[in-house]
Amino acid sequence: MTVTEDSRVTAVVSAPVAKSLEKARGVVRVGDLLELVPRAYLNPGRLSAFSELREGEHAVVVARVAEAKTRPMRQKRKTMLTAVLRDEQGATLDLTFFSAWGHVDKLLPGRVGVFSGTVSVFNRRLQLAHPEYEMLEHDAGDASDEVVSRFAEHLMPVYPVTGGVTSPKLRRLVQHAFEQLERIREPLPAEVRLRRGLLGREAALRRVHAPRLDDDLDEARRRLRYDEAFVLQTILAQRRARTEALAATSRVATPGGLRDAFDARLPFELTPGQVAVGEEIEADLARPRPMHRLLQGEVGSGKTVIALRAMLTVVDAGGQAALLAPTEVLAAQHARSLRLLLGDLAEAGMLGGSAIGTRVELLTGSQPAAVRRRVLNDVVTGDAGIVVGTHALIQQHVAFHDLALVVVDEQHRFGVEQRDALREKASAPPHLLVMTATPIPRTVAMTVFGDMETSTLRELPRGRSPITTHVVDAARESWVRRTWERVAEEVAAGHQAYVVCPKIGDDGPPDGEEELDEAPADDDLPPEGPDEGPRPLTGVLEMAERLAAEPALAGLRIAVLHGRMDPDTKDAVMRAFGAGELDVLVATTVIEVGVDVPNASVMVVVDADRFGISQLHQLRGRVGRGAVPGLCLLLTTAPPDGPTGERLKAVEATTDGFELARRDLQLRREGDVLGARQSGGRSSVRFLRMGHRDDETLIEQAREDATAVVARDPGLRTHPDLAARVAARLDEEQAAYLERG
Ligand code: ADP
Ligand code: MG
């Protein structure tokens, strides 16, 4: 059977090795193996310096054998071999083999080889215990002509150890895969390759795995990045083309209707940004094609008002709108604030309600059956023009009279699959508006959200106050005490405080509310640096007890909020906090998005190192929402110069969400190179550097090229290699989606 890039990797490696590779790096197909690129290269002509070796680390060195000794082992009938490698500075590295057999005639003094193994220290000397190695010179035992000439002319790739598979072994597996493959696909049309000055894919792959001494590696890497961008952009271009081909109902606001009535009573003037985005949306809604728009804007930039105006537009035109929130708490809050904004315009059919008005209904899983039945009925008859709920609203069997617009607040988990589910809700696909407060750098906007149009609100409405952030060393008792004193001072000045903890702390399962509510999910957390030992996290319940006993906070009204409380209690707590009947709210990240209490002026984040950059940024947006300046204190015991410290410092240094998002991506990228944790994900990008400006340009070019290709040949019939790579990529995404559940 011929081996292709789509063949399972077991076609070229043994089953156990395949399993390790899949687990560690998501390698499933032969093509994935080719995309495991080396993390570094050694020049076999240059001896490595041992001063750079660190105990416990997997090292690959080019070194000369200084001496080799054998001695019999006491108990066994074997002979032990110890060789000593010496570098140019005279430092030594011992090699030990518990059986000399097969090694004595290779490890000859004076010979150079490549050695790899885990560095340990024995008798205060650096050593590699039974390393893997390959001698690079002729008369050194096994070095064949092929090996010798290869090493005379090539750099030695060093792969990250992957699921126990060592660098030399990976190198052999990759070379074996190259030999087995009949051909390597070339997804890029020749014309594009020429115009962009790109290497062929095969040349690029061969070059990164076995570069000749004078090869330009950057050129090869650039091609692979482009390749990845191009395949992704082809998928997105196809998706856009499909959406463009769908028919949707055009929705235009009635002059003098609900939308106009709402505008007339707005207590403030829309910012120029709100006006511009509003016009973009109106234009989209008026087209007989489904809108697919991403609206990004900092917390408090006024997205909700924009969304509401869009919803009123479709209601004017006889349709319904659904607003989806990530948690029930937020859904309830949205319903409340929409009703507040609408006033009697939301009281259709009620005494005193406006004649042109509509109704805003909340639909959640935890409502009493009778309420739910009534709401479902209003939804199906169309009496409820606006329906607010969690994502369950589109997953469950909720029937609408005429669903015209879906607004999703916070894009977090709203992927292509959910969008597909949506289409089935309505006779014609509804218009879609996704809102996010997490600023999305252009690279991500063009890839992850590349099938959507984007609108951005860059200014905050006037009257917003600045937020100051400080990292507080939680190991210093006096600083922690001072933190609580600051909280007390804010309360004494008539304000309120949030204390955010990474978990609930009642030993129950993780806080379950839509899974968004607990400490960051694995994939939101940067890889653990060496400075992060396993340390118990502070729970909300424990923290609340501690604060109740804190002298500085004596007499303050403290309450807790987390996802496992029953909805009525949660609601009551939020309401009490909003009404100023509570001083301090100790909470999980339930308060991350949307919670709006302008009187809250200070937030303390406990174990701040457990949160990602964007999450911290999101969290602190809960303060400084009114006239009072916001203060955010990040408690941590993480050392300031580790990767975690870097993250917190970035959050401290700027409140520019776009800048933070870019820093976040850059820091994560670092993690990709260093740790297995982030790099494991299938379907994550492998070559593109998402925080990087060069790659932004490259993605733009790929987008342009891919769009042109798809426009000419939507089914990619004349581009079989591209079609195959697109299919493989979609397959991966599907698998990753199923794994995530
Ligand atoms: P977001 O959803 O982007 O976080 P919101 O729409 O909830 O922001 O707006 C935050 C607050 O600012 C709300 O109280 C809202 O009424 C108010 N707001 C929105 N737009 C304006 C504006 N143009 N001028 C003054 N206040 C505004
Ligand atoms: Mg909002």
What is the mean pLDDT?
85
Read across the widest sheet, the strand sequence of neighbours is: 11-12-10-13-14-9-15
CATH class of the domain at 258-457: Alpha Beta
The global form is globular
**Bound molecule types:** adenosine-5'-diphosphate, magnesium ion
* Amino- and carboxy-terminal Cα gap: 34 Å
Would you give the CATH topology of the domain at 258-457?
Answer: Rossmann fold
How many β strands by DSSP? 21
User: How much of the residues is beta strand, in percent?
Assistant: 15-25%
Output the CATH homologous superfamily of the domain at 258-457.
P-loop containing nucleotide triphosphate hydrolases
* Helical content (DSSP H or I, runs of 4+): 25-40%
The CATH level-2 architecture of the domain at 258-457 is identified as 3-Layer(aba) Sandwich
Unreliable segments (pLDDT under 50, ≥5 consecutive)? Answer: 512-533, 669-683
Major sheet attributes: 7 strands, parallel
Helix count from the secondary structure assignment: 24
Structural class: alpha/beta
Radius of gyration: 30 Å
Report a brief summary of the structure.
This protein has 741 residues and is α/β, with parallel strands linked by helices.
